[in-house]
Amino acid sequence: MTDSRLFLDSSVWLAYILGESMPLKQFIESTDELLFTSILSMYELWRRLQKGGWQEKEIYRALEFVLINSQTALLNFEVCVQAAKESLKTGLATVDSLIYASATANHATLLTLDNDFRGLKNAIVLDAGN
Amino acid sequence: MNRVTTTIQVRNETKARLDNLKKSYKVKTYDEAITTLVRVKRGSMYGVLARKGKKYSLKELLKDLRDKSDRF
């Protein structure tokens, strides 16, 4: 990967936290590239992990790592408008389109495990085993 | 010793991250937080929530992670 700005989707962080992709570990921990994460991923990861039975204390610790090791992308009017346009154009669901528009607004390539992004410009869809 | 200081401008978002770092590092000043930050290598949290012996499929990982339905 040669892009200098990467936007990590919730799925990528989840695979990292759960230890499901050694290449992702090596990449996240060694890259000099600027990493971004949507604030929406905090919601998704917390919800998913709490639902999965993990304790609040351990979830907090994991998400703190995400916050410290990447730039948090917040939502604003421009991102929401762009997301709405992308959703109408590509059929992406609400959060998918907000994540994708956030990556675009930050001039970053989206890195994800979610197949719904496959084929989109500036989106790299990884297999869980990659 | 009288330390020479200077003023830098950061985005509000960056200040918020520095505030988090101050809490995390248990330091009182931004100067200490930044000094600690540049000294500390990026650590690892890989597999921190892994469950022993449990392997997840891509499908399992993504299940319930994101709501794919629209409100309207």
From the helix content, strand content and strand pairing of chain A, which structural class follows? alpha/beta
Whole-number mean pLDDT of chain B: 82
Report the β-strand fraction of chain B as a percent range: under 5%
Largest interface: A-B, 41 and 28 residues
3D structure, described in words:
The complex is a heterodimer of chains A (130) and B (72). The two termini of chain A are 13 Å apart. Chain A is α/β, with parallel strands linked by helices and 130 residues long. Chain A has a 5-stranded parallel beta sheet with strand order 3-2-1-4-5, with helices on both faces. Chain A has helices at residues 10-17, 22-30, 39-51, 56-69, 77-90, 94-105, and strands at 5-8, 34-38, 71-73, 109-112, 123-125. Chain B has 72 residues and is mostly helical. In chain B, α1 (12-25) crosses α2. The longest helix of chain B is centred in the first third of the chain and has 14 residues, at 12-25. Chain B starts with 11 loop residues before the first helix and ends in a 10-residue tail after the last helix. The mean pLDDT of chain B is 82. The interface between A and B is medium-sized, with 41 and 28 residues.
Summarize the topology.
The complex is a heterodimer of chains A (130) and B (72).
Chain A: E1 5-8, H1 10-17, H2 22-30, E2 34-38, H3 39-51, H4 56-69, E3 71-73, H5 77-90, H6 94-105, E4 109-112, E5 123-125
Parallel strand pairs in A: 1-2, 1-4, 2-3, 4-5
Helix pairs in contact in A: 1-3, 3-4, 5-6
Chain B: H1 12-25, H2 30-39, H3 58-62
Helix pairs in contact in B: 1-2
In short:
Chain A has 130 residues and is α/β, with parallel strands linked by helices. In chain A, 54% of the residues lie in helices and 15% in strands.
